[in-house]
Amino acid sequence: MNKKIALLASLAALATSAFAETDIWTKTINNDSNGAWYIQPDKPKAKYFAVEPANTVPGDHAFRIKVNKGANPWDVQASSPVAGAINQGDVIMLIYYARAAEPAEGGSKLTARIQMNSAPYTSVMDLTSDIGGEWKPHCKHAVSTGTLAEKKGNVSIHLAAAKQVIELGPVFVFNFGPGYDEKSLKGCDG
C-alpha cells in the first residue's frame, strides 16, 4: 500500500512540475510590437522615459500621456497592435502596467479592450481597472467573445474620460486556445 501511495505521489509531483515548466510567454500574440504604445491623436505627445527605480516594470521604460477630458473617453487613446489571431472561444489574457502620475479628480479608471483595429472596433474582451499612483500590472483572462484575424486586432485604452496624467508600461496579450484551464492562470484576477 505504501508503494502505491508513493507512486501516486511521484506521478502527482511529475505532473505538477511539468505544468510549472509550461512557458506562457510562448503564447504571446503581440510580441512583435514589444509592448509599444501608439497614442491617437498625435497630440498630446506621449513622453517616453526610463522608469525609476529600475525593475519597477518589465523593460524599465514607459510612456507618459497628459490628457484633458474629452467629449468621449476614446478621444485620446493608447493602442498596441496584436499580430496573432483570436478565435471565439479561445482563452485569452491581457496584462498591462500602468500608474496615474496625476490622478483624475476622484481617482483614475481606465478601460482596456482587445478589439478590432478598424471600424466597428468590436471588442473580444474588456478590462476596467482603478489606476493608482503606484506601478501595478492590470490583468484579466477570459474566453474570447469574438474572432480577430491575424494583424486585425489591437489593445486600446481610452484615456480621455477625465483630466489626468497616465503612465503606461508594457502590454502583453496571450492566446491559450480553446479549452485551456483558466484556474492555472494564477495571480490574474480574471
Total domains, how many?
Answer: 1
Strand order of the largest sheet: 1-4-9-6-7
Number of helices: 1
Specify the overall morphology: globular
Mind telling me the CATH class?
Mainly Beta
How would you describe this protein?
With 190 residues, the protein is mostly beta strands. It has a single domain (24-184), classed as Galactose-binding domain-like (Jelly Rolls), CATH 2.60.120.260. Helices cover 10% and strands 42% of the residues. The chain has 1 helix and 10 strands, in the order H-E-E-E-E-E-E-E-E-E-E. The strands form 2 sheets. It has a 5-stranded antiparallel beta sheet with strand order 1-4-9-6-7, with no helix packed on it. A hairpin with a 6-residue loop joins strand 6 and strand 7. The longest helix has 19 residues, at 2-20. The N and C termini lie far apart (41 Å). 33% of the residues are buried. The model is unreliable at 1-21 (pLDDT under 50).
Feature tags:
single chain; 1 helix; Jelly Rolls; mainly beta; 5-stranded antiparallel β-sheet; disordered N terminus; 190 residues
